[in-house]
Amino acid sequence: MKYTMYAFIGLLVLGACKENGTKNTHSGAETKEAEHGSSSKHWSYAGETGPEHWAEIEAESDCNGRFQSPINIVKYEENNSLKPIALHYAESTKIHDVTNNGHSIQYNFESGDNIMVNGLRYDLKQVHFHEPSEHTIDGVRYPLEMHLVHINDSGQYTVIAVMAKEGVSSIPFDFLESFLPLKTGGKKEVNLPFNMNDNLPKNKDYFFYTGSLTTPPCTEGVNWYILKEPITVSLEQVNLLKKLMPINNYRNEQPHNGRQLYVTGN
Length: 266
Hints:
By secondary structure, the chain is mainly beta. It has helices at residues 54-57, 171-177, 235-244; strands at residues 72-73, 77-78, 86-88, 94-100, 105-109, 114-117, 120-130, 136-137, 140-141, 144-151, 157-166, 187-193, 206-212, 220-227, 231-233, 262-263. Strands 2, 3, 4, 5, 6, 7, 10, 11, 12, 13, 14, 15 and 16 form a 13-stranded mixed beta sheet that branches. The longest helix has 10 residues, at 235-244.
């Protein structure tokens, strides 16, 4: 796949090829990011509360850690031992609600959808968006990145990142955006089924590395699967999300610090 395209249109050290993360020691995370905060100042994406100051604002966080996300996906190596992602997404799984938490548009899921990583079940908790993308691939930044945030019973995280490029309108996105707009702090009940499979590319080859949540508390030990193939959405669909989310709600790339990146497929 080529990454020279104009890429388009959200919350997570591999020494050997392990696909499980370390235990989350924080009570707050991307699933409850709007509730987390140990300071009178709340983190944002700009100015005195922007990413450069997260470690100061969130004193109990990992935001100053060595193995942070996002990163530039570059200097990766093929690893034939990596298995396809074991997706268990059902047509009957419901979205419970959608919120505008001031950082992203977030869809919270009821129990049902899950993935398996090294024999452990990770349940899909929520999906949110970053515009433009947080991860870059060979230096190319897509206009939007969708994060599928999964958590296991031990509080460990696995996130599937899906890039999108401008193109044909997405029917699944039409459904998701039918519950918008939402004012900052707003919440709307959905309670309708959504088949997550319909919102993923056909090719599930991926890049893999171990990093962190990309928002405070920046918890480390997160399994990251960045799908190689983007989905497509229309310019109108991108612009609706863009109007509702903070401008440039992405964290800049973080140092690799010796981490290994792997890729499946050709």
